[in-house]
Amino acid sequence: MKSKYLFVICFFVFGINMQSFSFPRIVKNEAFKRGEKLKYRIHYGFIDAAEATIEISEENRKFNDRSSFHVVGLGKSKGSFDFFFKIRDRYETYIDEEAIVPWLFVRRVDEGGYRILQDYAFNHSISKVNANGRILDIWQNTQDMLSGFYYARTFDFTHALIGDVFSVPTIVDGEMYNLQIKFKGRELIKTDWGKINCLKFVPVLQKGRIFKNEEDMVVWLSDDKNHIPIRAKASILFGSLKMDLVSYSGLKNPFRFQ
């Protein structure tokens, strides 16, 4: 998306004066910074099916004189899996550095010929989003699919108890959801660099979502200030998916392996 297009969407699509608005919250962020890059390997059963990267660029684009994080997530199929089911996904979000809410969200999905093109411009002062030309109501501090992941990483899980639920208001495909994750405990996970203490989470089931059972999707986050996904597993209709962290750089806090 070109720079000119970004600013036109953000500041003129609602036809209001953003200069009078200031965000009502400041989120304490000890989890990430510019320059962080994470790379994942995705297996479909025993097949090395895809890879994904998610990176916070060094760019600091200003919105209403406020700094932002520019996050880009890329996913693509590989090997024999690419021949049968080609995946080329790109997600982008600009996140307000202090409030940790999105200004802009871009989604470009191409999975086996199925395509999604989404451009969202958020105006949190009036709780609205321009979603591909439709002006929709949103909840306070609504996240997009990518910014919500970073917002969740800022949560303090120090005193989390098994069964505790954490919520992230999120807009997905033009619909509002109060996405929730449930804490299931702490586990020691083996990685290529050694063992690392992790926090285990599962999604809280909601009507109409794709997972029928609580343990159909499990995510392990590093039990440190980074809260980085180390591993994820999901059971789907025709098998299972497993995602593992394979490289990392630019972390705000160093990993501690055993």
Describe this structure in words.
- With 258 residues, the chain is mainly β.
- The chain has one domain (3-12, 29-247): YmcC-like fold (Beta Barrel).
- It has helices at 3-12, 79-84, 147-153; strands at 37-44, 47-56, 68-77, 88-96, 102-111, 114-123, 128-131, 134-137, 165-172, 175-191, 194-203, 217-222, 229-236, 239-249.
- The radius of gyration is 18 Å and the shape is globular.
How are the secondary structure elements laid out?
Elements: H1 3-12, E1 37-44, E2 47-56, E3 68-77, H2 79-84, E4 88-96, E5 102-111, E6 114-123, E7 128-131, E8 134-137, H3 147-153, E9 165-172, E10 175-191, E11 194-203, E12 217-222, E13 229-236, E14 239-249
Summarize model confidence as the mean pLDDT. Answer: 89
Please summarize the sheet with the most strands.
14 strands, antiparallel
Give Rg in angstroms. 18 Å
Under CATH, the topology is which? YmcC-like fold
Figure out the total of helices. Answer: 3
The percentage helix is under 10%
Q: Biggest sheet: strands side by side, in what order?
A: 8-7-6-5-4-3-2-1-14-13-12-11-10-9
Number of domains in the coordinates?
1
**What is the CA-CA span between the terminal residues?**
43 Å
The total count of strands amounts to 14
* Global geometry: globular
Unreliable parts: 1-9, 15-20
- Just name the CATH architecture: Beta Barrel
Characterize this entry briefly.
This protein has helices spanning 3-12, 79-84, 147-153, and strands at 37-44, 47-56, 68-77, 88-96, 102-111, 114-123, 128-131, 134-137, 165-172, 175-191, 194-203, 217-222, 229-236, 239-249. The chain has 258 residues and is mainly beta.
